[in-house]
Amino acid sequence: MRHSTIFSARLRSALLSATSVSALLALTLGHAQATTLTAQDSMTLDGQAFTPNMQTDPSSVDLFDSQTGPSGSSGFVHAYGDVPTLTFGARSSGSGSNWNVDSKFTFDQTITNTSSVAQSYSLQFTVDNGQVSNFGSPTSGSMSSTFSINLKFGSNLAASTDVEVDTDSSGSTLTLTGFNLGGTASADSSSYTWSPITETVALGTLDPGASADLNYVMESLAIGNNAACASSIGSGGFEALAVVGSGGFSSCNDIARSGDPVDGITTGGFAVTSTAVPEPASMALLGAGLAGLALARRRRTKREPEADAIW
Fold first, then answer.
1. Which terminus in the chain has less CB density within 10 A, N or C?
2. What is the mean pLDDT of the chain?
3. Cut 0.90: pTM above it
């Protein structure tokens, strides 16, 4: 009994020491970050390609662009990101007969493990309200709208999502891939909308002094291909406002977006955290201690079964 008591005391001491080391490591953890935000667009209307725009800044970008093609097709983009408020968004919309409108927001952050131990990294981020919608019933041609997010840590794809709505004279098809935005589809599959959603993603591990690039890309794409629509959208409502302002129109139109302050949406969230990876020697010591304690208990149970109650 004396030996098992001494062993238990030593194990408790080892566990307390391991806890103290963990607490110390938690105080000394760290990672350096260098951030670049990029907003960019591309737009082709009625066969005419407009000059692409790009903004780059370490803290805030906000890109608007609106154009009209030679045959009256129109496009609008808004891509933005703001580090102080952690609000990111991308929106593309088009109308007429032929349009290809693309907006993209990119968050690049180089993360360096500045601690003395390996770190396991994770990202918690919020995807703002959004929608992917095609409006009108094409009698010919087609429309397609897409919203996507791709998240990479180094060369590894950590998470992705993609919402696509395709519409032609036979109807609409909704395709969802990647992590679930938790949205709602319309009865005819021509529209998909979602409320803000927060995701937590495991990124990977960095050894002391190592670095990796965190690359978060949000993209919205609106396309019309020789589209002609018999139905029209009445005046008012977000759909009309999103594309051409107040009033109605008789052409096909679509929109893909997440966020966009036009709708008064300001939900934000984007945080990288790290946790120390236990060293193999410490884990082996702890495992040996627990195994020893179990063996000592089995031996004591065989010799003194009446003393089980004190354990």
1. C
2. 81
3. no
